[in-house]
């Protein structure tokens, strides 16, 4: 296998892992609302009741 | 070893194949390297053509000028593909536009070969023993298929030096037709009386240069690919497609086996018309996973020529963390010159992504509004916003469904696109190379010919 | 097999096969014809010109499962070149010709069944041109070359006398599948041979001539890589 193909295979593995993680966290790229990624802090919005 | 008596007339074993002679015209020292097969010899010192079919060399065409030396000198020996070859003859030919050189190589056990130099690449050619067969529009010989290239052209000899097994002369013309395969070329040469076939192998850069000890050549990065030059992307593309297929299969498997959404809660609420703010709270919405997506669907079946503004707030009971969403439910209908029409989504959904674990309340702030077709409005009626002259409001029933989990389709699509990116890039590069190799006209290339 | 002595110079002579009645004495080059037990001198054969052919008398090889040894050679020449024909004597006593021309080899066996316009034209001394057809052993061959030839030298054991000045006419034919044939008219006789191109590796040739500075071909056991 050529070097670029090995690199691409690793990228695919990474993408699969990213997908699995995103799916587990209920992330959706087409969501209209929701939490920002976990590493963004300070997302407290207005409170209602 | 041999049972036959050695005679005084037979050459000794281990003799050299090179005979040193003197040119009958100029007296210069020349070599005869392929005695028995060499027919004509062009003296490198004076350019005279000598007949080598008789034991004594005889002048056929007298000349008196020194000839320029070929890049690989006559008599050079080099090894290609495990076979040692000696340069016995050299000629230059042209198709009227581009010149090229050919070295006649000889090995007493292998016979003859041609080393073809187009100025950039070297090819090694051997005469074929058989006539290729036609396979649709392509030629086939020994299981290898060759595709047609450019039209038949005339090749003319412009320079000759050294010895040859045919009566070679400057000005000699043949009709040549070339066929190409990856790293291989099949050429038919015809001069009226007979046709011969040569199969040549494109040598990797540096191979011939190293074998015959001449300077290596630099590749120019934007040169048009030769007809027999395979796309350097083909192998990578194949590998990338395999990897992409495997990755896509894994993604699809993960996507298909992912748990689908679950209904957490469904309530019917009433939304009034034209109030500025009207909150309804429904709950509890239990979200047990560390993070999950939440889908809120509002079905408004009885909507007609009206719309609903809906503001959602998903508020965690303990932390008061809240996530906002917005949807519009609408439905309009009427009649015009084309007949009845209706439009609008009266069943909108909102997706909240990555909501953390917790128990939530969903605060629904909804307001309904009527829409009046301007063409059907009474005179003086101010359009759309405001309905002061219309009858008092009803309440619009809305069925709210809250679901958690599922909905990974969009994500799956996004990642499949990301995976396809690299094979797509390779495919474009490969297609571009092949288009230039085959000489199809390029839209953004000025010199995309040949 | 007949072991005898040259009637001219007394050197040892050997006739290996009754079919090969002619032997060129290796020492005095007299052409000796054997009929039964009697030997007859019919002239002097010209010496084969010096060349760099890898073949020599004594080379052994095989055509499939049939083994042969090269026992004789005739060197032909025409206006624009020359070639050699080496006589192959097979284990079963039959013979054939290994043609050597321009560095390529053709293994040819005699064929009696020959018909068509080519042999007919040759028999009456007419003009043969490329494209004309001959039917040999039931298959069609097309003429690729036709030329007037003379013998330029001979050596070893041969089926018929071949001395310098023998005029003949030689026609090369081939088929698209690569098989090749040769029809030769000499004196009044027309003879046909059919076969194919072979390489030295194809026939597993052993006993080849060695040349200074040239490695033996790779297929030869013990030589090369």
From TrEMBL, chain A:
<protein>
    <submittedName>
        <fullName>Uncharacterized protein</fullName>
    </submittedName>
</protein>
Automatic annotation (TrEMBL), chain B:
<feature type="transmembrane region" description="Helical">
    <location>
        <begin position="240"/>
        <end position="258"/>
    </location>
</feature>
<dbReference type="InterPro" id="IPR025235">
    <property type="entry name" value="DUF4178"/>
</dbReference>
<protein>
    <submittedName>
        <fullName>Putative RNA-binding Zn-ribbon protein involved in translation (DUF1610 family)</fullName>
    </submittedName>
</protein>
<dbReference type="Pfam" id="PF13785">
    <property type="entry name" value="DUF4178"/>
</dbReference>
<keyword id="KW-0472">Membrane</keyword>
<feature type="domain" description="DUF4178">
    <location>
        <begin position="74"/>
        <end position="201"/>
    </location>
</feature>
<feature type="transmembrane region" description="Helical">
    <location>
        <begin position="410"/>
        <end position="428"/>
    </location>
</feature>
<keyword id="KW-1133">Transmembrane helix</keyword>
<keyword id="KW-0812">Transmembrane</keyword>
From TrEMBL, chain C:
<feature type="domain" description="DUF4178">
    <location>
        <begin position="56"/>
        <end position="198"/>
    </location>
</feature>
<dbReference type="Pfam" id="PF13785">
    <property type="entry name" value="DUF4178"/>
</dbReference>
<protein>
    <recommendedName>
        <fullName>DUF4178 domain-containing protein</fullName>
    </recommendedName>
</protein>
<dbReference type="InterPro" id="IPR025235">
    <property type="entry name" value="DUF4178"/>
</dbReference>
